[in-house]
Amino acid sequence: xxxxxxxxxxxxxxxxxxxxxxxxxxxxxxxxxxxxxxxxxxxxxxxxxxxxxxxxxxxxxxxxxxxxxxxxxxxxxxxxxxxxxxxxxxxxxxxxxxxxxxxxxxxxxxxxxxxxxxxxxxxxxxxxxxxxxxxxxxxxxxxxxxxxxxxxxxxxxxxxxxxxxxxxxxxxxxxxxxxxxxxxxxxxxxxxxxxxxxxxxxxxxxxxx
Length: 209
Hints:
Blueprint: E1 6-11, E2 18-23, H1 24-31, H2 36-39, H3 41-56, E3 58-59, H4 60-69, H5 73-80, E4 81-82, E5 90-104, E6 109-116, E7 121-128, H6 134-138, H7 150-171, E8 178-187, E9 198-204
């Protein structure tokens, strides 16, 4: 016998009693309500995640100088970064301003290479596949405890990364463009050079700084 596609659910009404038909998915949602953070990712990206990163981002030269003077990554993280759990790497917000030297789209993990004001080259993730969980882990508005479900927490990160990839696609950086990128990177140790940056905001500027 095939399993029924619809289930009857008895519901109590203030005036009239009775029943209504709900789908299997609706019944599952009633038993396990969808996480509210998953329902509000678009709003969180626009109103919370991006503003937080833009507000906290330090110019690359300043951040790398500060990190180089720190005694260890734990002390550096407390002063200049964010770590929601001890078992996570530290996430730092950084601002990179410079000129696009190269746009690499040979793989789905595309990259933009920028020569910044220090004369250093910085790699910014382009997508459409954005690697890592730095955007999620750097956002102070949620933590794993808000999900208690590794799959949901992973889906939350992927959706945030998709927003970053869509932003980069719409911007369409080209060699020669002067840009400023506000983004994040994660590190277990104090980096000697700036790691690949995951973008949260990108704008065109009049020149590298």
